[in-house]
Structures are given as structure tokens and as C-alpha cells.
Amino acid sequence: MSQDVLTRTDDSARPDRSTDSHADPDDVRFALQPGEPLGRDLLKNRFVSAVMRSRWYPGAFQIPIAAVFGLVAYQLLTGPSKAHENAGTALMWVLWWPALPLVYVLFGRFWCAVCPFAAISDFVQKLVGVNRPVPPFLKKYGIWVIDATFLAITWADHVFGIVGSPWGSGILLLLLTFSVIVSGAFFQRRTFCRYLCFLGGLSANYGRTGMVALRAKPDVCATCTAKAACFNGTDTVAPCPLFTFARTMEDSANCNLCANCVKSCPNDAITLTVRKPTKELWFLRNPKIEESFLAMAIMGIVIIQNVTMLPVWTNALDWVNQTTGITSYPVIFTAVFAVGVSIPVALLALAAKVASLGNLESAFKNFARFGYALIPLDVAAHVAHNLFHLLAEGKSVFYTVGALFGGQTTGSAALVGNTRIQVLQFAILALGLAGSVYTARRIAHRRYLTPGRRRSTLIPVTALIGVLTALNVVMFLFPMTHRM
Amino acid sequence: MARRTGNSRTVMSSVGVAVAIFAAVMAFESRSTSFDEAGGAQSTSSSGGMAGMNMPGMDMSGTQPAPEPTPTPSMAADMPGMDMSGTQPAPEPTPSMAADMPGMDMSGGHEHGATTEAVSVRPLAPVLGAFGGGTSAVLLAAGFLRRKDRAANQARKAAITARRNRR
Predict the structure, then answer these.
(1) Given an 8 Å threshold on Cβ–Cβ distance, is A78 in contact with B135?
(2) A244, A255 Cβ separation under 8 angstroms
(3) How many whole angstroms from its chain centre is CA B116?
(4) Which chain A residues are Cβ-neighbours of B53 within 8 angstroms?
(5) How far apart are CA A208 and CA A196, in angstroms?
(6) B112 — contact with chain A (CB < 8 Å)?
(7) DSSP conformation class of A160
(8) Coil/strand/helix, residue A483
(9) Which residue, A1, A46, B79, B164, shows the most beta carbons closer than 10 Å to its own?
(10) Is A310 inside a domain boundary?
């Protein structure tokens, strides 16, 4: 094994845990398991190291992205009111939103480092920041706030019109900007990004599948006398914006690769490694039920987004109208939304309950642990859904942006044909399915010693993964409506 | 000195934001007025001529040829977000549900060429005004709070120094 391959030591592998004679042998074994092995350190490459340590990183990315964000906001608020004519809508919902999950899979939470909202927050903080500590409520329930915000925004999109309406998208941007300004003005670092941003919650979940991981070398950190410079920053380098202490960091959920810790560490203890996608999920030590819930809620949201874009949705609305006499779209959609989001959550709860009968852990623990196994399928369904918009409407970005500068404004919006898109969608779903099944297997094998416990866990979880995949496959078989 | 600098920076930034928003609002207001004046003629000509088929990014034909434009109320291809040209024809809208469904609007209200008219009915001025006002208020409040915190810190430091000197 090369020198570049590092293995993390396990903080919890302490003698007091292993010597407990009454403990479940699986618990003891699980506690002794080593953490995620890290691969080749990219920071040993001169170019990567120079880029990460440069004072222009990540600012060099932030500036052009902020400029495009300004154009998007301007277009959304003052440009054409039709989505298909608006460059802001095209850039935001046809290009950026579909590309985002791909960025997470490739580079983890890198988007958060270059996000224009983060730049606004930093700017406001420099200007008038009070730097109050994060309220304990947010620390404790922030992820639930994110869950609720994500659901609320999706609901509002359908009821008030956000994606299909440039004005609605513009209002959403203004609301987010205002929230970021409030957070930046009163609270420390990027409180909004860590505890309130709905996209941050999505990033934290999807970022775990990322192929790049930033970690500290525990042996070097053990002898560090720099008073947590990686967390607190130095005179010239800002502290970690997402309140993550590199030394104890075990996952990439709250690392945006801003490289502040790389710049501030006096011992060169930070590594940037490449790994297999979803690998982090195999080594989870402390699963959280709220993060599992978010994973399932996102699955529900993708299902709802798919359903409402199918021709059958119109028929269903007609049927509800004729059967119940209800004509109010908000009422019908709210009911469908509640059911749609509940389906994956309820299915996971059911699978967790069945698994708990065999693996002797509580249903809650099973829910929390195996919700993460669904993240690869989540990402795949999200990418597959948005791939349609990217490939079937991608040229609208050129047309609408080109129209701003007097360019060509006509032609088909499709980049490739529907059949090819469908093939790609199914291929991506297959990858997601494989990723989820493999992740569930790795988690179960790592957690449980006996084949019986593993089997009784994997059967319901795999069945759940299969059901959700089948549901997505069925939906992708139908033609979807366009976003613009 | 530092306190005064911080204070003036807060006030200046807040006033700057407020002025910028006010200027933007006034600019958009005047633009909207000019649209209103020109709107009638524009919308009549463009909707009559089905200019939408030449609109940017509007050809949703995918792999199939676009349908012939016929100025009938039921023409599905003209409805953004409802192009069913892939494999199936668009279903007929039910009159009772049309107006209630954002994002699924089948009312035929998506006629091309109504852009400028629609722009003028957006409540841009109050929205930007509220955003600018809210932002200015937040910046001012945060600035004054920071000033207060700094004053309290300095007072605490001064008290500690005085106590040490007394000893």
C-alpha cells in the first residue's frame, strides 16, 4: 500500500467499550471498526495544492458565478414574464438545478463554497456583522427546519408557481437573499448555509456521495498546538464557515471544500482525497433520523415532481374534480403532496420495523441507519428527473441568453431525442439502484456480525429500494411535460 | 475612532442600499409606465401574428416536427409547461379547474406576445421596496448592535484595566 493511503484511527475504539462483558458482540465489534479509509491525497499534487492554498480560491469561482446570479435575478424580476422566454428561468431551472446533483456526486459540497448567497453573507458580515453565536434551537433542530423549508418551497412551487414563473422564482431569490442578509448580519460565519438553507440540507445529504473528501491526519492533529486554527482561522484566513472541526470530521456533510483549513493549518495535516462515489455512506457511525427523513422526503418530492409532470396528473385532477367536486388546486395538491411525501417515509418506517424484528435494534435506529442507503437512489432519481429538463430543454438556455445579446432565438429546445433521454434515465436509475443496494449491504455487514441479522435487515431494505426504483421506472416510462 | 468608523459605515451602507433600491424602483416604475403606454399596440400585433413560435426556446418539438400553428384556444403546443408533443395529445381542459392551477394552467392564457403587458402588472416596486426597506433596517439594526457590543467590550476592558491599575 502506498504512503498516500491513510487509514483513520477510530476514536471510539477504546478499551472501556470493548471490555464490557454484557455488551452485544455486534456493538463491540462495530465500535472497534476502523473509519473510512482515505485514498490518494490530491494536495500532494503541486497544481491542486497551489489552487487550494491560493488566496483567489474560491473567490475566483465566486465572482463569475455571482455575476451570472445577478443576471438571473435581474431577468427573473424584470425580464419576460413567460418562462420559456426568460433567460433567468432557463439558467436557473434548466441548467443550474439539473447540474447541481452532478456537482455533488463529483465534488461533494463544492457548490456551497462558490454559492453567491454565501458571498452575500460574508460581505454583510464584514460590513455590519454582529457575530452572535448560533442559537441552540438552530443547532438542535436546524435540520428539521431545513426539512420543513424544503417541503414548503416544493409545495409553494406547485401552489403559487415558482419554477414555471420567472416572477415566482425572482421572489424566491429575494426571500433567500433577505434571509441570508439577516443571518449574516446577526450570526457567526455561515449560519444560514449550515442550519437553514434548504439547498444546504440537500447538499449535505448528496455531498456524502461525493468523490472528493477533505479530512485531517489524526496522527498529526494529535500533536497540534495551534489552538484549532483549522476551526477558528488565523489572522489572515477566515475560520471554517460551516463550523466543522477538521480534526474530528468523519463525514463530508458539512464541508464545502473552501480550503480555509488547508490554508490555516500550520502542520499540513489536511488531506484532500479521491474516493468511490457513495463510499462515505458505507462507514457511517452516527446516523441521524432527521437526515434519513430528509433523504426520504427528497425521494417523495422527486416522485411528486414526476407525477405532476405526467399526462396522468391532469386526468387525476379531472377525476378528483368529478368525484369530490373539489376544484381548488391548492387543496387537491396539498393532499397529494402530503400523501406523496409520506409514501417513502412510511415505506422506510415499515422496512425499519420489519428489519428491527430480525436484527434486534429499534425501528428508529433502523430508520436512521438505512435511510442513508437510499441516498444513492435519491441522487439518481433526482439526476434522472432533471436530465430530462437539461437534455430536452437545454437549447433554450442558448436561445434565451442569446436573445439578450441579439443572437439566434428560434429552433428546437431539445439537445437529444426523448428515446435517448429515457435510456440515460434508466441507466442512471440502474446505477442508483446498484449504489443503494450495495450501500445497504455494506452498512448491514459492518453493523451486524451474524448472517441472520444481516439477512433479516437486508431483505426489507432491499425490497424497499426495489419498490422505490420500480416506482421511478414506471414514471420515467411516461412522457413528461417541459419545465419551460 | 474605530467606533465612529463602524457606525458611519453602517449608516452609509444602509442608506446606500435604500437609495439604490429607491432608484431601481423609480427606474422600473418609469419603465412600466412606458410599457403601459405602448402595451396595447404591442400585444395586439404579436398575439394576432402568433409570434410565439419564434420565441426563444419555445420550439418544444423535440424529435418531432412542430405542429402547425392554428390560433385556436385548444392549441396545446403554445402552452408553456404543457407541451405533450412527445407522444400524446394534450387533454382538453375542464372549465371548472382552469384558473385554479398554477403551473398547469390550461386556460389558454399563455398567448404569446403578452410579455410586455404582463411585465407591467408585476408589483415590482412594492416588492423591491419591501426588500430594500427590510434590508436597510436589518443592516442598520446590526450595525447599531455591533456598535453597542463594541462599546460594551471596550467598557469591560477599561474596567479590567482600571481594576489592575488600582492594585
Answers:
(1) no
(2) yes
(3) 15
(4) 410
(5) 18
(6) yes
(7) I
(8) coil
(9) B79
(10) yes
Look up the ipTM and state it: 0.79
The verdict on B35 touching A (C-beta cutoff 8 Å) is: no
Residue found by looking up cell 400524446 in the block:
B88
Mean pLDDT (whole number) for A95-104: 91
Q: What is the pLDDT of residue B12?
A: 63
> How confident is the model over A17-49, as pLDDT tens digits?
444 455 666 676 776 676 777 778 899 999 999
- Shared domain for A263 and A314, answered yes or no, is no
- Which residues of chain A lie closer than 8 angstroms to B54, CB-CB? 409-410
Q: Taking Cα atoms as reference points, which of A459, A432, A319, A308 lies closest to residue A374?
A: A432
Instruction: Please list every residue in chain B whose beta carbon sits closer than 8 Å to the beta carbon of residue A395.
Output: 57
A309 and A270 belong to one structural domain: no
Average pLDDT over residues A158-167: 86
What is the rounded CA–CA span in Å between residue A212 and residue A210?
6
For residues A350 and A464, membership in a common domain is answered with yes
Q: Is residue A173 part of a domain?
A: no
A32 vs A41: CA distance, rounded Å: 25
Distance from CA of A306 to the nearest CA of B (A): 13
A329 and A433 assigned to the same domain: yes
Of chain B, the end-to-end C-alpha distance in Å amounts to 29
B6 Cα to chain A: minimum distance (Å): 8
- Domain containing A369: what range? 289-477
- Residue-wise burial string across A201-233, b where 16 or more C-beta atoms lie within 10 A, e elsewhere: bbbbbbbbbbbbbbbbbbeebeebeeebbbbeb
Smallest Cβ–Cβ distance between B143 and the set A90, A128, A161 belongs to A128
Q: Report the percent of chain A where pLDDT is more than 90.
A: 45
Instruction: Check whether residue A384 and residue A295 sit in a common domain.
Output: yes
Minimal Cα distance from B82: which residue of A?
Answer: A481
When divided into structural domains, chain A yields a total of 2
Q: Given a cut of 70, is residue A277 above it in pLDDT? A: yes
In a domain, A77, yes or no: no
Confidence of residue B15 (pLDDT cuts 50, 70, 90): low
Query: A339 and A455 in one domain?
Result: yes
Residue B151 contacts A where some CB pair is shorter than 8 Å:
no
3-state SS assignment for residue A219:
helix
DSSP E strands in A266-411: the ranges are 270-274
